[in-house]
Amino acid sequence: MSFFIFRVAALTGIQKEIVYSSELLHVVQYNRSGHYHAHKDSQPLDNESVCKHSDHLYPNSSDGQPPKSRLCRFMTVLYYLTEPERGGQTAFPVADNETYTEEGIDHFYRIKHHDIYDLTNHCHDSNLVVEPRKGTAIMWYNHNLDDQNEWIGHINQFSLHGGCEVIKGEKWIANHWINIDDNYDMQMAYLADRIRNGSPPEDESTHRRPTNDTNVSSIDDARRSTCQLPQDWHNTASMTSHDEL
């Protein structure tokens, strides 16, 4: 697992502590006809809910109920573990659109006469279709950065994506979701909590090292650390990066 952590940190410029403390790899198998219609991996910012990965740090309500939670996945890295004989592409229906609005979605219905979420029947009508290649990975950002505080902002609407139908063979993938709390202080507290319960792994690979040398080695360091998100990430016109594992 440390191999993936350091490769993702090197690719994105995000501190390895954030990558380490995110969700474990989620491995999925698709058999013939298997697919996943278009969706977003994260959920919109909401003052009435807290991030699921750090919800244990938030107090319960006055009646003892845990806080309402939502997914906070700043980034997705998708690893292609196998390669189907046919089909199984990853499609981004609205990638490279100049704008994204609900009216724009209606435009797709009116002009293209299809449901952009239906990747069984309209995979290749998507703006961007990525062929699955064993041993490669693609990544995209599920959130924009907030212009004022340069921290996690609103949902990146262009991240709408899904898995096209496997026509022949089978497909295995692994989802690697990078979790970041939109509440900066709570993200720092979460990192400190993870360090308290287990330190990030050392780099065991001889591949590229992380581009950010920030090394949070103690709870106090986590509290003092100035955690930043990369500023040179791709805009929505080129929303995916592709890299060999």
Provide the gyration radius in Å.
19 Å
Q: Between the first and last Cα atoms, what is the distance in angstroms?
A: 13 Å
What is the CATH third-level topology name? Jelly Rolls
Calculate the mean pLDDT score and round it.
Answer: 81
Largest sheet: 5 strands, antiparallel
Helix content: 10-25%
Please tell me the CATH architecture by its name.
Sandwich
The CATH C-level name is Mainly Beta
What count of domains describes the coordinates? 1
Give the arrangement of secondary structure elements.
Layout: H1 2-12, H2 16-20, E1 26-30, E2 36-39, E3 50-51, E4 69-70, E5 73-80, E6 86-87, E7 90-92, H3 102-112, E8 128-130, E9 136-141, E10 143-145, E11 152-155, E12 161-163, E13 166-168, E14 171-179, H4 184-196, H5 219-224, E15 241-244
Parallel strand pairs: 3-4
Antiparallel strand pairs: 1-14, 2-12, 5-9, 5-14, 6-13, 7-8, 7-12, 9-15, 10-11
Outline of the structure:
The protein has 245 residues and is of the alpha+beta class. The protein has five helices and 15 strands.
Explained architecture:
This protein is α+β, with helices and mostly antiparallel strands and 245 residues long. It has a single domain (2-57, 68-244), classed as Jelly Rolls. Helices cover 19% and strands 25% of the residues. It is built from five helices and 15 strands. The strands form five sheets. Strands 1-14-5-9-15 form a five-stranded antiparallel β-sheet, with no helix packed on it. A four-stranded antiparallel β-sheet has the order 2-12-7-8, with no helix packed on it. Strands 3-4 form a two-stranded parallel sheet. Strand 10 and strand 11 (152-155) form a beta hairpin. Mean pLDDT is 81; it is low at 201-229 and 231-241. It holds the Pfam family 2OG-FeII_Oxy_3. Belongs to the iron/ascorbate-dependent oxidoreductase family. It comes from Stichopus japonicus (Sea cucumber).
